[in-house]
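Lab meeting minutes (informal)
Scribe: AK
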Amino acid sequence: MNGGAVELAKARLQFIVAVVLYGTIGTMTRFINLPSEVVVLVRGSCGALFVLLFQLLRGKRPDVAAIRANLRWLVISGICLGLNWIFLFAAYAYTTVAIASLCNYMAPIIVIAISPFVFHEHIGPKRLACIVAAFVGIMLVSDLPAGIAGGVDLTGAGLGLAAALAFVGIVICNKRIGQVDAYDKVIVQLGASAATVLPYVLVKNGGIPLGGADALSYALLAVLVVVQTGIAYIFYFGAMGVLPVQEIALLGYLEPVVSVLGSALVLHEPLGVSGAIGAALVIAAAALGETVKE
């Protein structure tokens, strides 16, 4: 195996590890006995410091000129990231991890749907079929007909879809960001996400309520910051510079698969036959929607 093949295999492994770690977040947060907005605040602020420390240990300082040139879109994307986390973590509290995660993963489909208006891109029949399949899937997963009839609380699904809309904002902003080092981008975005969440935490809680939780909660919060944010982001963005775009798109859909499996195997949350079919539709439609060209 030559050097290029070794580098590609290493990047592929790092990317898979990163998305699998992302996929376990929903399940793990169920065992953290702290308000969801506080978890988001700690994740954003400490995650930014972790990645900054990683860069400094590598002997690299932030490119201040590049950051300043793209500051507006970096900050807005960071605000969208903070909102995405707030809505998603709140959705975990109202519904199953599977439903919240799959609603959040409507984001790629929403991007495809709005692309003719925002990015002036054509939607062909194959991509249109993916959009329809994804919406059918999300109806099956969230049991939308029963919710409309008053039989199901759709708050969790609604929060998951709000998270998806916030993620769409991240995608739109990232398309407008110029040449900025991937890790510098992460540092600013995580920092901005923390700054976005901070006023909400202070108003809702009258401070930052980090006390009162059990030892397990603090241990898992540390894992969330160091492993599932710091290390996962470093692996993710490091691999993105090596892997082909299509492979990144396809491997990225390991995350919702892991979320659904964690929901079922660890939390024993029911999904049902129709929910499982819906989950498969959402994941397949989102993955195919990013790879087909028409």
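Next up, CB showed the second protein from the same session:
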Amino acid sequence: MTRHLLEITDLTAHEIHRLLDDADRIRLAPQNVGTPLAGRLLGLVFEKPSLRTRASFESAAVRLGGASLFFSGGEVNLGVRESYEDFARVFSQYVDAMVLRVFSHETVAAVARAATVPVINGLSDLAHPCQALADLLTIRQEFGSLAGKTVAFIGDGNNVARSLAFACALVGAKLILARPAGYGFAPGVPARQTTDARAAVRTADVIYSDVWTSMGQEAERVERLRVFAPYQVNSDLLAAAPPHALVMHCLPAHRGEEITSDVLDGPRCVAVRQAGNRMYAQAALLQWLLVK
């Protein structure tokens, strides 16, 4: 049966740990990787622009001996020029796996239902499972393990936070979301929620920040800047956290909004390494999905 990755919960805890192990092997000994994707082609269709998601997937494919094709959303017009099902059935004949970066989660879900090759969610309004894999990889590299670790996510209960909450629950970690009232998770997400950012970081191993206004929310920007102002990750907030706590950000960052430059560029921030881990986590994912 064709496996897809639409949400992080499509993976078991065992599969997550296997992917993280494989990602570290690829990172630490690239000379031993070989070309497991030789002759394989990855198709990318992005309704939303991206630096890290596109570059990391294309780099991962090439480093494993494969190749990629990229199409912007305007070139394909998923669900407009033709149905999701027609696109999925045809595109599945051209590529060995596809990555979709979309506005609506139903788009990637509808394509996956009809596709005959693996479909990977490169971001939707509901979930960002590939980011969650890279986040877990980064935390494990920094602390040696994931079990028992606490992530304080400061800001919006968005797709990144939601996927990371489920990922943490799968591997024995926990996530605390500090957000303004009305910007939290829907019921069913395994995380504690609070409106007190300082309380959230007191026992944190990781302090995680993300933009307050995501793509598609531009009309809400002024209101979001006002409401989220008390949730900036800055030196004062870090002072309330344990000395060992590290800072993560999925990037791109809006410096001076959700995070200050002194924190983002400071010695406790691992955002650059975290971004690099996207490539290794996704290389492991592609190898797992395509090399039987």
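CB comment: The domain at 8-128+278-290 is CATH 3.40.50.1370 (Rossmann fold).
No objections, moving on.
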